[in-house]
Amino acid sequence: MRQCLTSPNGGYYTTNREGRDQFGRKGDFVTSPEISQIFGELFGLWLLTEWMVQGRKKHGVELIEVGPGRGTLMDDILRTVSTFKSLVSSIENVYLVEASPSLRAAQKELLCGDAKLEEVSIGYRSISKFAGLPITWCEDIRSDKTPFIFAHEFFDALPIHAFQSVPPSQPPTQTLSTPTGQISLNRSKPEAQKPQWRELLVSPTTLTSGITTSASSSPSMKSKEPKPDFQLSLAKASNPSSLLLPAQSQRYKDLLPTKDAVIEISPESHSYVADFARRIGGSKNAKLTASSAVPPAPPKSEPSGAALILDYGPANTIPSSTLRGIRSHQLVSPFAGAGEVDLSADVDFLALVEAALGASDNVEVHGPVEQGVFLEQMGIKERSEMLVRGLERKSEKGAEAPGDREGSLDNDAVEVQSRKRAIREAVDRLVSRLPGRGMGTLYKALAIVPERGGKRPVGFGGGLGT
């Protein structure tokens, strides 16, 4: 996944191919910030409320987004918070963690316009068109103060390992004839008498693979799709990954006796979320594990900051056979067209919870909750009606509708009705719980905040005073 998505030589996100845009209706997929401006506005509102709950810090606030796409989410966040002067004055820097030069250029154009882009020691820097905030592009998270971290559809693109449970092998019986009788030569190791995890490895296509992915069994896969260049093959023996990674959680151990059970584990995801937790709550000073590639952060005198994660995956089960390819809004084989197809896998939210709590004693994790629940608690429907009323008030004047990023209106009743309908349909798509219709159930929200006795953040059942 890493090679196909971010390789400097032909990676899906890192190679600039003329006329290709991964995002939007003309691209391969549409993300929530592209569907409605309200999505990013509510992220900005969540930032504001969490900043207020933590005592309205006057300085040292740093905004961080990992995997910022075209920059649409951060653009809406900054536009929203720019009206709150006390919060803006506390923000020292905005960091965008981005590996793609072409996406970095798109983000800079959207967020900074004509402002100069200069190279600095950790990456590149420019000035936001909102409130003149400095924006820094880097390839690793940079923050040692009060970080507010946003990760939207980031974890689903991180590499996974897949493992399958196999029953204990029964070696053939071997005997030796002696003058006193037959002697058994079997000396089976104890572990050979127990189920084992075996890794599912990517190998060149030779024979038809019996391993399925979420795309290979989909009706969207048409016969005209190119034959995959690779397939998943079951390793013939245990390897370091299969011995180490599934042993890190009781959840995986409990599934081991289930014959042919398949699990997906993303060590890089665990490492990132553990780093989030350490930057917010300070290091637990525990020993590094195989999934903790990021060194422990230095202890903090006072836990501060927060992380908000939205992605798709099950709320309380382990993902299984979810690796998929996406092209032109259709599921395709993840093993064909390397570098031309987006790859993703479901996020294991409970694994993120375990990794965050294991990294710092001074954080709480809230969620996962369904995206529809989170957005409704944040006021998405109320905000949509505000935009609709703004369109109605301004339509006769041909002025810009307040707060609408689409800009000014012509004196055209048809356009007004079209814009109103588009606002409501977008909101319905983001919160709908109907299968195949919306994103309200498929996507989940997770928050990491400083330890505070279980006080829930807004969007997770809490409020400013609860």
Q: Helicity level, as a percent range?
A: 25-40%
Q: In DSSP terms, counting alpha (H) and pi (I) runs of 4 or more, how many helices? A: 13
CA radius of gyration? 25 Å
Main beta sheet strand tally, sense and closure: 9 strands, mixed
Count of distinct strands: 18
Give the low-pLDDT segments: 286-293
N- and C-termini, Cα separation: 42 Å
Shape designation = globular
Structural class: alpha+beta
Output mean pLDDT.
86
How much of the sequence lies in strands comes to 15-25%
Strand order of the largest sheet: 3-4-5-2-1-6-13-18-17
Walkthrough of the structure:
- With 466 residues, the protein is α+β, with helices and mostly antiparallel strands.
- The protein is built from 13 helices and 18 strands.
- Strand 14 and strand 15 form a beta hairpin.
- Helix 3 crosses helix 4, helix 9 packs across helix 10 and helix 12 runs antiparallel to helix 13.
Q: Mind sketching the topology for me?
A:
Blueprint lengths: L1 H5 L25 H4 L1 H17 L7 E6 L5 H10 L3 H6 E7 L3 H12 L5 E3 L2 E5 L6 E5 L7 E7 L8 E6 L8 E4 L2 E4 L11 E9 L25 E5 L5 H5 L5 H6 L6 E4 L1 H15 L24 E7 L11 E4 L2 E3 L9 E3 L4 H11 L3 E8 H8 L1 H15 L18 H19 L11 E8 L16
Parallel strand pairs: 1-2, 1-6, 2-5, 6-13
Antiparallel strand pairs: 3-4, 4-5, 7-10, 7-12, 8-9, 10-11, 13-18, 14-15, 14-16, 17-18
Helix pairs in contact: 3-4, 9-10, 12-13
What's this model, at a glance?
With 466 residues, this protein is an alpha+beta fold. 29% of the residues lie in helices and 21% in strands.
